[in-house]
Structures are given as C-alpha cells and as structure tokens.
C-alpha cells in the first residue's frame, strides 16, 4: 500500500477527551476514529490489525472443531424472557419497533439465540458433541464507556458454544479450550502477561475462568500465584485468600484487563428452550453447554497498552498491519525513487505486506510517523544508502545496511 494514496492522515496531538494510551496512539496513528463515547470506527490500518487477530482466533477455533456461523445482532424479547434475563441483564439495549410494536434487544451475547438454533439440529446422542462459533459485534449499554477500546458500547467478540451429552464430555472439551486460549495469546506475544484466572462460576459451577492480561491500564484487580502461574480475581479472594490450586498465601496483587473468559453453562440455557437429546436407551436428556469468549477490540487496546514507547505503538509481528514500512527519503531524486519503487514492487511480488511511504514530506515527518504507526521493520532508502537498504526493528535502536537479497530472505 502506498501511503500517498491513503485518505487517513496521522495526527500530531491526541484528542483532549482521551486519557487511555491505546486510544491516544490508535487515533493519532490513524488506526481508529472515535464516533462517540465507547464507539470507534476501524480505519484501514486498524481493520488490518483486527483481521490478523480475527484470523489467529479463527484458526484455533477451527482446530477445536468449531464451525463458524454468523448470528443476528437484532434479538427478540421473547427469547430473553424465556431465560429471565430481559429484566435482569444490566446493560441490555432494548427498543420497540415503530411498525410491529414488538420489543427487541441488541445482542450483548448470544446464548438466547444459539440454544434455540441448535434445538433444530440436535435430537439424538449421535448429534453430539457440537461446537459452533462466531465473530460478531456486540452492544452493551455501558454506563462507564472509557479507556479507549478496553471498555466500549459496541465491540467485537468471538463466541464459541459447545454442546455435550454429559458433564464429563464438557470437562474434557473445556480443558482443550484452555490450551487453545493459551496458544492464541502466545501467538500475539501476550502469553507472559496473561493468566488463567479463577472467577466465580455463579449458578453454573464452582469456578469459571477468565484470561487476564497484566497492565497498569486494567480496571480489574487480580492476585497472581507465582507458584502455579495462575491468578484469582477479587470476587474469589474475598472468600478464600489462597491459591485454589496449591494453597499459596503469598499472592501478588496486579491490575489487569480481562481479554477472554470460559464458562461451564451446563443446562442454564438449554433448559429454557427445551434443548434435549435422546440417549442410547431412548431416554430424553438435557444438553450440557459451555461457552468461550474473547474480546477483539479489547485485545487490540491491550496490545497497545503493553507494546508502546513514548514515540508510538510497537506492534507484535503476528498482528501488525504490515510486515515492513518502506521509507523513501528525499524521493525527488530520481535514482532514489526508482530504487524504492523497485524494492516496493519486489516485496509485493514476494508476498510481503509493506506500507510504502512515498509521500513528498520531510524525512523527519516520515521517521516520526513510522515510529507512531509501529510496523515491526522500518526500511529506509536514500542517497546515503546507495544500492542497500537500511533496516531497523521498531523495538531496537540500531539500524544496519543490507542488500535486497538479504532483505527478501529476512522478511520471508
């Protein structure tokens, strides 16, 4: 992509109404634009990051046996009344149609939709287990929309739902899902700061589990057990001030962001919709359910909160909008421009995603924007570099000169 063709421009200053680091840098660098409190537009760079994260998650969900669907945002009141959550779900957006006079909700979650859907396809023990997921936008009437992408009113989530014959089968799959989540966070370079966190299971089971990423920008307080490499949330620590696995009392208090969660729903949402199957003896049994969520907007915000310096974002390579940022310095010089154009074309032919700063602006502005945008590799071509390319990683200070052949080998 040529930077001169972009309709988006970087900003020198962050909006005055944004306090969160992730919002400041994402807006300044042209990844997102704020429409209103808690609602952001993904611009071309931001959408590329979003798609990279989406694809990492999708691969793991498919490896878990998940089949992808897309459920509607618009949900009927009747389904929410069946589960008793029409009046009790705190942040539910509700409205009435002017024409049909029916009441609807904008989906904050999809248990009320997935359960009656699967009822149409599950009738026998031979139909189980089943795993269904989606990546879709959610709406919550959040009273405290703040912290940029960390707490919004409209955001994207991955929901995976599993359907089982019994609790033993759910337990087996639940453990697989934990491992998949750890893989996802490792690919995104978040694994060293993301902890499986014990939380209350509510009416579902003794525990549910969150995945909490440590950062000072987090609103949650967790207590880390360095022995077991797990954490406990505040709700649990009020009841037991020890690690639930090893009994360790020396837990480390940290601020964190919840980037994912998993629940054993059991029959909580199969029961209201009469989601049943006939077992091997022809007896009707209730389907056992699990659910597994990851917040995509929140992941993007969390990554920026962790991977940045005073100049801008430092994207991990797996989620970066491009692999390399090619800067043509003083590109009015015909020999520089020709060589830069050639390198850009050859990188594209090699399947390397590259942003080419071919704008006629100062070298200082190009370097400043490159640091702000935060693409992993900066490539500079100028009269000084001759027939070589200056390469520098965004998170390193030193640059070096390499040949085109070495560059292609490195980036491949």
UniProtKB/TrEMBL annotation:
Quote the EC number: 6.1.1.15
Pfam families, per this entry? HGTP_anticodon (PF03129), tRNA-synt_2b (PF00587)
UniProtKB keywords: Aminoacyl-tRNA synthetase, ATP-binding, Ligase, Nucleotide-binding, Protein biosynthesis
Aminoacyl-transfer RNA synthetases class-II family profile domain span: 46-316
Q: Give any GO molecular function from the UniProt entry.
A: proline-tRNA ligase activity
- Write down the chemical reaction(s) this protein catalyses: tRNA(Pro) + L-proline + ATP = L-prolyl-tRNA(Pro) + AMP + diphosphate
- One BP annotation, GO: prolyl-tRNA aminoacylation
Assigned GO CC terms:
cytosol
Specify the enzyme's EC class, one word: ligase
Q: Which domain of life is it from?
A: Bacteria
Establish whether keyword Protein biosynthesis is in the entry. yes
Q: What is this protein called?
A: Proline--tRNA ligase
Taxonomic path = Bacteria, Candidatus Curtissiibacteriota
């Amino acid at each position: 992509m040529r930077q001169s063709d972009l309709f988006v421009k970087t900003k020198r200053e962050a909006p005055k109404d944004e306090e969160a680091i992730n919002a400041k840098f994402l807006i300044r660098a042209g990844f997102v634009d704020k429409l209103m409190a808690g609602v952001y537009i993904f611009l071309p760079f931001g959408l590329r990051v979003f798609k990279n994260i989406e694809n990492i998650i999708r691969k793991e969900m498919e490896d878990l046996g998940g089949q992808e669907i897309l459920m509607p945002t618009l949900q009927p009141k009747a389904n929410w009344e069946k589960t008793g959550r029409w009046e009790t779900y705190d942040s539910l957006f509700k409205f009435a149609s002017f024409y049909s006079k029916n009441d609807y909700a904008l989906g904050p979650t999809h248990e009320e939709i997935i359960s009656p859907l699967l009822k149409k396809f599950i009738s026998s023990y031979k139909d189980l287990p089943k795993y269904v997921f989606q990546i879709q936008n959610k709406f919550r009437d959040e009273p405290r929309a703040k912290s940029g992408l960390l707490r919004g009113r409209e955001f994207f989530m991955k929901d995976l739902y599993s359907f089982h014959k019994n609790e033993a089968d759910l337990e087996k799959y639940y453990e697989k899902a934990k491992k998949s989540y750890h893989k996802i966070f490792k690919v995104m370079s978040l694994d060293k700061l993301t902890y499986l966190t014990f939380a209350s299971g509510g009416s579902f089971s003794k525990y549910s589990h969150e995945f909490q990423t440590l950062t000072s920008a987090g609103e949650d307080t967790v207590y880390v057990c360095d022995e077991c490499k797990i954490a406990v949330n505040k709700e649990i620590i009020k009841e037991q001030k020890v690690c639930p696995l090893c009994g360790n009392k020396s837990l480390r208090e940290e601020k964190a962001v919840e980037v994912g969660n998993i629940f054993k729903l059991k029959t909580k949402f199969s029961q209201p919709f009469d989601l049943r199957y006939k077992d091997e003896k022809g007896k009707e049994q209730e389907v056992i359910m699990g659910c597994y969520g990851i917040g995509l907007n929140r992941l993007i915000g969390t990554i920026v909160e962790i991977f940045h310096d005073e100049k801008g974002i430092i994207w991990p390579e797996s989620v970066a909008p491009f692999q390399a940022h090619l800067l043509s310095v003083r590109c009015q010089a015909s020999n520089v421009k020709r060589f830069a154009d050639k390198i850009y074309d050859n990188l594209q032919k090699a399947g390397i995603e590259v942003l080419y700063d071919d704008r006629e602006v100062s070298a200082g502005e190009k370097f400043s924007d490159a640091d702000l945008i935060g693409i992993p590799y900066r490539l500079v071509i100028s009269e000084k570099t001759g027939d070589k390319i200056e390469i520098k990683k965004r998170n390193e200070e030193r640059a070096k000169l390499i040949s085109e052949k070495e560059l292609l080998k490195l980036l491949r």
